[in-house]
From TrEMBL:
It comes from the Bacteria. Residues 144-154 have a biased composition (Low complexity). The keyword Transmembrane helix does not apply. Residues 132-168 are annotated as: Disordered. The keyword Nucleotide-binding does not apply. InterPro entries: Homeodomain-like_sf (IPR009057), HTH_TetR (IPR001647). Keywords: DNA-binding. It holds the Pfam family TetR_N. This is TetR family transcriptional regulator. Residues 16-57 form the HTH tetR-type domain. GO terms for molecular function: DNA binding. Gene3D superfamilies: Tetracycline Repressor, domain 2.
Length: 219
């Protein structure tokens, strides 16, 4: 059984606050340690450098987002459209509730090193599973959650792709990019709290692609 590391959690919270205030390029390990009320030695005992701390924060935040989105999706039962809308609303509400974490994980991630940017790519790629359409089985997840290694993701086996009407990966990636860009713009403008209000429009935008695909298949 793993013993919770309270100081590790303090440092992650302090990292998010400090990066939100100073920006990642101007943040130093000492700044994070001071914000957490700990010594710089305590920081280096847990992280090799700032990028290592950023990876830990990013995995923690995206792991929570994905697990709660999946739960909202499954709670809708067989109505996958309602599940997708619920998952999207859950994600937007969670981001809005934590502007400091949102700023770090959406804006400052681009200023970090390649390890952190790779985590972003993995997370966004893992979101394809929520856009698989009326496919049976659990929501597949290829993104690393809290405590997962960078190797193959653990968790449920990927569900089979739907046959007719399935969206190609390039289309799903385009949808994810559009949603990500919209959220990014709100966070960059300091309007993070408004994100839940966008849920109905963004759900309609996303589901519109499936409607178009269904219409094409029925021709």
């Amino acid at each position: 059984m793993t013993t919770p590391d309270h100081e590790h959690d303090l440092l992650l919270g302090a990292f998010a606050r400090t990066v939100a205030e100073r920006g990642y390029p101007r943040t130093r390990p000492r700044d994070v340690a001071d914000a957490a009320g700990l010594s710089e030695a305590a920081f280096h005992a847990r992280f090799t450098d700032l990028d290592d701390c950023f990876v830990a924060l990013y995995r923690h935040c995206t792991g929570l987002l994905r697990s709660r989105a999946d739960a909202a999706f499954r709670a809708a039962g067989s109505d996958w459209r309602a599940g997708l809308s619920a998952a999207l609303g859950t994600v937007l509400a969670m981001i809005a509730a934590s502007p400091e974490h949102a700023r770090a994980c959406l804006l400052d991630v681009s200023s970090a090193g390649p390890r952190v940017r790779l985590e972003r790519l993995r997370f966004l790629g893992g979101l394809r599973g929520l856009l698989r359409g009326p496919s049976p089985g659990p929501v597949p997840d290829s993104s690393p959650g809290p405590g997962r290694d960078r190797g193959p993701a653990s968790g449920p086996d990927p569900a089979p792709e739907p046959d007719p009407g399935a969206l190609p990966d390039v289309v799903r990636d385009a949808i994810i990019g559009g949603l990500y860009g919209t959220v990014y713009a709100r966070v960059a403008a300091g309007r993070t709290r408004e994100l839940p209000d966008l849920a109905p429009a963004l759900a309609a935008f996303t589901l519109g692609y499936f409607a178009a695909s269904d219409a094409a298949v029925s021709r």
